[in-house]
Amino acid sequence: MTHASPGHAPPARSTPVPAPHRWWALAVLGLAQFMVVLDVTVVNVALPDIRADLGLGLSAASWVVTAYTLCFGGLMLLGGRLADIHGRRRVFLAGLVLFTLASLVAGLIGRGLTGSGAALIAARAVQGVGAALLSPSALSIVTTTFHGPERHRALGVWAAIGGGGAAVGVLLGGLLTSGPGWAWVFIVNVPVGVLVAVAMPRLVTAGKPDTPGRGGLDLPGALSITAGVALIIYGILKTGDGGWPSPAALLPPAAGAALIGVFVLVERRAAAPLVRLGLFARRPIASGGMVMLAASALLLSAFFLTSQYLQYVAGLSALQTGLAFLPAALATVAGAHLAAHLIPRTGPRPVAVVAFLITAAGMWLLSRLPAAPEVLLDVEPGFVLAALGLGAAFVTATTTAMTHVADEEAGVVSGTINMGHELGASLGIAVVAAVASGGFAQGYLVSAVTAIVVAVAAAPALPKGRPPAHTGPIFAH
Predict the structure, then answer these.
(1) 210, 143 Cβ separation under 8 angstroms
(2) Does the pLDDT at position 2 exceed 50?
(3) pTM of this structure
(4) Can you give the residue ranges of every domain in the chain?
(5) What does each C-alpha distance from 5 to 1, 10, 12, 53 come to in angstroms?
(6) Whole-angstrom Cα distance, residue 305 to residue 442?
(7) 193-231 pLDDT, tens per residue?
(8) Assigned CATH topology for domain 280-477
(9) Higher-confidence residue: 41 or 393?
(10) Strand, coil or helix: what is 58?
């Protein structure tokens, strides 16, 4: 037993020394995260111009969005695992370089200097891989750089970046496409990437890996789930091209389902699985994941359909389309804030049911759009209503999944929910691109029916009652 020396107080409990440039580091990391989140929606408004310049059909054009979200979501957990093994800053910089170079290639394709539609889709897939390395590494750096009350403030800023990036993306896409051209939707990432790459080593120390080499790397799991979902999406898009029920349309989804089965087997046997399958046996996580997948699919498919409708049918320019998206983007934020206040009082179940019913009403209004619409009178009410409901659904999903999670599981569950966000976006866009080949009204009507089905399923699936008080913010974009 040791005793303090006479005249000396017992040694104080050690606390982490704050990093001297931590707020500058947050600004730089936030800029990088803003860039990768923005790239989910920034392309939507530019798609008609991309289709015209590269000669892409509707289903092929959907891959310009889907290739990014699919690789981003499918490989995100692998990116987080790589950061644990090889160091956060190293993996962040590797993802940043990959994302920036892929953005440059996409921009060169847009300037007509190289490549084709297929090359652009490949560049978008590489962007998604870079984002999957960058995003979880950046969040890990933030959580380990800040401590105590400062961490909550920093993570609050981080959480706001997701919604801000999605909202600004549609406006920025319109500004750039109407101005210097759609290539600049990608080229604008290059100076940002260079700035972040130069600043990072000066602001964030390299640090040591958390689990250097331990537990292995679940590469088979990451590849099987990503490839499986990609094949299912490809099969869905083939049906939109009139391929059903040919082997060209039937075989890819069957192969994709088989690969998802392989993923399940791999996760059961892996020493360090990407996702512990036992998590999905827990009702809050499973039901929260279902709500996130559905909400993301409906929102991104609505963005995709409406950007096409406004430019092809309503005859709006890319800039006008971007401005027309702003009310819906604000409605998404308003719905999220409303749900955040209601869930502690009512619980997630009634909020989710009402949210998806509101979404269904908005989609139904959009399905009745005339051939010559008045944007403010015909388009905005349904679009804003759907966005309001889906903003509430996103908060319901994250709150439900994260409320009963222990601190040591928060990272993996948050990553799983974020993965559902990106994969839901990929599936939603694929489905409406296939259905909308028969007309925009059909795409919106399928979305309305889907929202009603999810509302009915959410009623018994989500936990009853109010959630316990949460001590910290919940993160999903």
Answers:
(1) no
(2) no
(3) 0.81
(4) 20-207, 218-271, 280-477
(5) 13, 8, 14, 79
(6) 11
(7) 999 999 988 887 766 665 555 556 788 888 898 888 888
(8) Growth Hormone; Chain: A; (1.20.1250)
(9) 393
(10) helix
